[in-house]
Specification:
mainly alpha
Length: 252
Amino acid sequence: MTGLLDGLAGVGRFAVFAAALGQRLLRPPFFGGEALRHTWTTAARCLLPVLAVNLPFGMVISLQGLEIFHSYGAERLLSSLVSVTVLRELAPVMASVLVAAQGGSSVAAELGAMRIKDELDATVVMAVDPLRFHVLPRVLGLALSCPMLYVAGATAGLLGGYITAVLVKGEPGGVFLANLWALTTPMDLWAGVLKTGVFGVVIGLVAAFHGNFASGGAAGVGRAVNDTVVHSVLAFIAFNYVLTSALFGMGS
């Protein structure tokens, strides 16, 4: 019973924290330069891992799909399978997982270290709102970088599918490209951008929350980093189901 009450209290603290950031987002002053700096830092830090993960995943999807379609003589549908899988699910989820692991953990560690060293309290003494200056730009940086990394990851995944199908397995490149968008529309790309934008906000809020309320010295910072990755991934996986059902399941 005590654990349940503690969990509910934590959810309440998170809601109050998110609402406080939302209020600051709507009222000046705005530290846009800080937000852009954190966006660039997160995107640069996560770009190579996103490309390194999505490229081979696209290759594997193409390889496995080709084996299945070969049994039915439907190899021309391979690129359609790759594009649907990559754009709708693979690229959004993998990009967000890596942003949580790289960017979210970094934000939690930075804010946690600042909390442990009383730097956030010192900011208050200097008449500067720490939520507005330190926390909100980091949340926006994660929220803005996630869709950018999704586009890069989707491109890498499609390229991986092309490499396996055309360059490795010898399928006609023209057929692959001609059917690449047979089952997808620009809405699939925009839906991925929307999903990763939501995921980025979730990751940013969770990372900022755990970092801002870290306690217990270096061990507390480590717990904040671990909780950030676990909780943010669980949260946006749940959001992924809801958003996918809303965006793609209405016609079913």
